[in-house]
Amino acid sequence: MPHAKIAHDDGRHGSGSRPARRWAAPAALALLPWLAFLPVTLLRGVFFLGDVQSYFFPYHVLPASLLKRGELPLWNPFAFSGLPLLADAQTALFSPPSWLFFFLPGEVALSYATVLQFSIAGVGMSLLLRRLGLRQLPAFLGAAVYMFSGCMTARVVHLSILSGAALMPWALWCIELAFRGRALPEAAGADAARPLSGVRSWGAGRARGFVAAAAVIALQVFAGHPQVPVYTAAMLGLYALVRGVERWVDTGRPVWLVGFPAIVTGVYVLGGGLAAIQLVPWADVGTYSTRAAGASFGLVFGTSMARSDWLLQLFPYLYGSLRTGPYAEAPIAVSLAGRFLEHSAYVGVLPMGLAAYAVLGLPSLKAGGRATRSALFSVLFFALLAMVGVLLALGWATPFAEVVYRLPVIGKLRAIERALVLVTFAVAALAAFGVQRVMDGAAPAARPRRWGLMAIGAGMAVVPAAVVLLAAQPWWQRLMSLPREAAANLALHRPNAAVPLLVAVAAAALFFWWSRRPASRLTLALATGLLLADLGGYAAFYNPTIDRQYFQRRPDVLAAFRHDPGSFRKVTYLPVYNLDDRTPKAILAMSWGMVYGVEDINGFNSLQTRRYTDYLFGPDEGDVSYGIFGNDRLLRPESPILSSLNVRYLLVQPGVPLRVGSGYRRVWESAEVIVYENTLAYPRAFFADAVRGMTDASAVRDAVTADGFDGRRLAIVETGNPPALPAPAGQDTVTLVAQSVNRIAFACTTATPRFLVVSEMYFPGWQATVDGAPTPIYRTNYLFRGIVVAAGRHTVTFDYRPRSVRVGAAISAFALLIALVALAAGRRRR
Q: How many other C-beta atoms are found inside a 10 Å radius of the C-beta of residue 16?
């Protein structure tokens, strides 16, 4: 693999054409997703599947709407009876693509922000591969592979994961700049030959790389999901070690085994500081969540890549399709949908063959100059990264599962198979190096090269064909744990098997051709067309869309609440989430109440607090409810739980078997939903007749959730020194006078000092005042707030002013100052 040729024949014939030629491929990559998702681009449809509408649409629309009307999005009263909003990083409020929600309709902003992630991924991957010494075509193809891979395409449903994955190549590109210096190489390969810089050679280029890398890490945090940033940190740590070994080989000094990891550590310290305005509140609220004690082994490894899941790398529609199209005749079975989304990491057969060819070329890179040696370490790094990703994704199937589970952070992340993003990223980069090797080689000169191409080509055709032939065999299905529906999809008459098999045969034919003749413009053009048709088509037909009117039309059920002027909450009875994709909105399930300002006791969020879960579902509930509410025991009149939460309305789908208690009466119905009113619901705020103190939280929980408990008669506060109050006398009133997301106020009149109980979540950051004077808040009845109100007429106000947001903002400002100083220092030393 003579990489010394990389710096030449780059297609530039004059200095005036260099900028245009340099940015032509990135510009094309930025445009490609908008062409692949053309119906979305032209607004003939918008993404809507699963979490797109149940989570990301509400949690992006709400903060934008609050800011546009002048309210800070600190608290969210519309889910789980109230929880922090800004602290929920998946709102991605500080992520620039999310700013589209300030200017565009929500469904348009969400779809455009999603497509934009593909462009970000493609451009970043192209810049990275060019910086590593590859020419335009290999860099372009490697970027296209990553951009349209399964780890990107299948994550349209998880925008936060998609956004983090899109930034991975940018993070590595910036780290490479911090290691070597210079903002952009003059020609491809020039920086590959440039020696890795020492710490003392800090200059403008390296300073920019360091600060830019920190900014990318901050943007990954702002994207909102912790998993990809953790995997990115592992990737950059491995990269620092590999480049440290390279520096050791160049200089004979092993100090760089520590030096480059130190740079990466500094990047993460600065990046974490820049992101502190999001990171500090996020970490703070996470300590109260159901997962604060750590994820169970089953939560981490329970959905590891099973045997048949790896066949998705050959047949991306093995389990079916989310929509009908040229790759599948029928939609996927609901039972397989989760596996389909979490385990999809398709990169195409041709890129896998090219990646294998790049790895086979490692021995030929041992000899040569600095550029060749740098290419060797690049290929070695990506090969090691792919191995790490595979081992993690295998999860419980490896003997290392217990070891991984005991690791901090990385061993506590849900769904370990999401480490496939590392495999996808590595294989895409290796495929680019494989293209480079094909272009630089002169077949049929070297016999090892010829036989390598032939062996890979044979494997590319034989392995998929063998899978198809064996699919009908019962012993093979048992061996591979292959579901019956998936085995049926591997029949040759189905496009699920036929289309990938044709692509594999075409890719194999190219390898056989290259084993006999040098790569020509024609064969490279055919390879480019095959790759783009395969992966572009896979991406274009993967995610279903729906007409914009679905998001724009208000659900009819809102009419049931139109004449209720009071403050109330509702719950949707949902025993199991088996809804079609048009139903959640109609019954205000999951997070749809947020969109229309309807307060809900349930929701769809992994930050559901442990206390709230215990109160509503019991201490044996292992994880968040994810919008599921199916315990009709809570509907009995003797149960105080829903009434104490101020649940006035119960929504049920027609035909769902349900035993409704005597306290519920039907008040509204349509073909989609039946609405019951809870006549026993407590008001939002009231004076309790008596107060008792208890210090054992679990005992308080058991007492206040027991059948027959009446929170209006007795308020239990979690303290050994409860307030001593006289017996109530006279007529007392509580009236809601003001309510916004961060404030709620009541006008109170009482003849004697009383204890006011408010059906609002007790959570750090809430402050109470009586007529403007601060007063302590008692944790009351396990979940709620309570304060003492003196006799007379008073205004009681609760304001949410979380300290974590102020601390995070201060740290971010300080980190920004440090970043500016680092850039200025770099310019002085240029």
A: 8
**Max CA pair span of the chain:** 103
Q: What integer pLDDT is reported at residue 17 of this predicted model?
A: 55
Side chain identity at 794, as an amino acid letter?
H
Query: Does the pLDDT of residue 767 top 70, yes or no?
Result: yes
Query: Is residue 540 classed exposed, middle or buried when 0-12, 13-18 and 19+ CB atoms within 10 A define those classes?
Result: buried
The whole-angstrom separation of Cα 335 and Cα 416 is 20
* Separation between Cα atoms, residue 198 and residue 391, nearest integer Å: 33
| Alpha-carbon span 27 to 435, nearest angstrom | 21
CA dihedral (590, 596, 599, 600) in degrees, to 10, reads -10
Interatomic CA distance for residues 122 and 162, integer angstroms:
13
Cβ neighbour number for residue 42 with a 10 Å cutoff:
9
CB-based contacts of 560, cutoff 8 Å, min separation 6:
649, 667, 668, 675
Distance CA 109, CA 102 (A): 9
Dihedral in degrees, nearest 10, Cα atoms 278, 279, 285, 290: 120
Task: Tell me the C-alpha distance between 781 and 600, whole Å.
Answer: 19
How do 766-770 and 792-800 pair as beta strands?
A: antiparallel
**CA-CA distance, 72 to 742, in Å (whole number)?**
8
Query: CA-to-CA distance for 61 and 105, rounded, in angstroms?
Result: 9
Mean pLDDT of the chain: 88
User: What one-letter code names the amino acid at 250?
Assistant: D
Q: How far apart are CA 185 and CA 10, in angstroms?
A: 13
Q: How crowded is residue 383: how many other Cβ atoms within 10 Å of its Cβ?
A: 19
Joined tokens for residue 271: 């990046």
pLDDT of residue 180: 81
Residue 518: what pLDDT? 87
Please tell me what DSSP assigns to residue 679: T
Which tokens go with 763? 């959570």
> Which residue, 741, 723, 731, is CA-closest to 787?
723
Q: With contact defined as beta carbons under 8 Å apart, do 756 and 746 qualify? A: yes
Task: Output DSSP code: residue 554.
Answer: P
Q: What is the DSSP letter of 289?
A: B
E strand intervals along 27-114: 46-47, 75-76, 83-84
DSSP 765-812: TEEEEETTEEE--EEETTTEEEEEE-SEEEEEEEEE--HHHHHHHHHH
Highest mean pLDDT among 183-187, 359-363, 510-514: 510-514
Dihedral over Cα of 221, 223, 224, 226: its sign: negative
Rounded to whole angstroms, how far apart are CA atoms 532 and 534? Answer: 5
Q: Is the dihedral of CA 753, 758, 761, 767 positive or negative?
A: negative
DSSP 202-248: --HHHHHHHHHHHHHHHHHHHH--SHHHHHHHHHHHHHHHHHHHHHH
Residues 780-796: tens digit of each pLDDT:
999 999 999 999 999 99
SS3 for 160-192, per residue?
A: HHHHHHHCHHHHHHHHHHHHHCCCCCCCCCHHH
Mean pLDDT on 249-254:
79
Mean pLDDT confidence for 314-334: 80
Contact 73, 86 (CB under 8 A): yes
Q: What is the tens place of the pLDDT at every residue in 555-579? A: 999 999 988 888 999 999 987 766 6
Model pTM score? 0.92
Would you tell me how many other CB atoms lie within 10 Å of the CB of residue 478?
10
What are the tens digits of pLDDT across the range 133-147? 999 999 999 999 999
CB atoms within 10 A of CB 736: 16
Eight-state DSSP code of residue 399: T
> Among 142, 209, 201, 226, which Cα is nearest to 170's?
209
CA distances from 19 to 15, 74, 124, 185 (A): 8, 45, 17, 12
pLDDT digits (tens, 9 = 90+) for 608-654: 888 998 998 888 776 666 778 888 889 999 999 999 999 999 999 99
| CA–CA separation, 374 and 372 (whole Å) | 5
